[in-house]
Amino acid sequence: MNNGMATVFYVDDNARSRGLLSSVLAECGFEMITAGDPVEALSACSNICFDLALLDYQMPSLTGSQLALEIKLLMPDVPVVLLSSYAALPPTELVFVDAHFGQGTHLDDLVTTMRRLTNSEPPGRLTHGSAMAWADLT
């Protein structure tokens, strides 16, 4: 973590969602590293440093839950946050996840949890327009 900014490794195969949420989270003071393929993301884990993994649940090749397991095996102390379009997931999908946000999640809740898990300082207030734009894609 640099100067209170946490580095987030965000993996989502949907380029539009990945781009929008990355921009919003960068506005919130997070340093973002992104990947669109979970298998490539797993390979990259040994070459990059990050404070939190933010994973989409439904991806090709590996689900977010499977990727969470692999990340926890490599870096057990790195928190993992799972995003899904489902309101709830079975407990077996959340074993290696520190937080899950599903359908209907407010962006402020996600940001607050990410800051808590990384002990990072908020740089300022999130704009309402950014939150609404992200909410429209989930």
List keywords for this structure.
138 residues, alpha/beta, Rossmann fold, 5 strands, 38% helix, disordered C terminus
Question: What's this, in brief?
Answer:
This protein has helices spanning 15-27, 38-44, 64-74, 107-118, 128-137, and strands at residues 7-11, 31-35, 52-56, 80-83, 99-101. It is an alpha/beta fold. It has a single domain (7-132), classed as Response regulator (Rossmann fold).
Average pLDDT rating: 87
Tell me the number of strands. Answer: 5
Gross CATH architecture: 3-Layer(aba) Sandwich
CATH class: Alpha Beta
Order the strands across the largest sheet as they lie in space.
Answer: 2-1-3-4-5
| Structural class computed from helices and strand pairing | alpha/beta
* Overall structural domain count: 1
Overview of this protein structure:
By secondary structure, the chain is α/β, with parallel strands linked by helices. It has a single domain (7-132), classed as Rossmann fold. It is 38% helix and 16% strand. The chain is built from 5 helices and 5 strands, in the order βαβαβαββαα. The protein has helices at residues 15-27, 38-44, 64-74, 107-118, 128-137; strands at 7-11, 31-35, 52-56, 80-83, 99-101. The protein has a 5-stranded parallel sheet with strand order 2-1-3-4-5, with helices on both faces. Strand 3 (52-56), helix 3 and strand 4 form a beta-alpha-beta unit. The longest helix has 13 residues, at 15-27. The protein is globular, with a radius of gyration of 14 Å. The relative contact order is 0.20. The model is unreliable at 125-138 (pLDDT under 50).
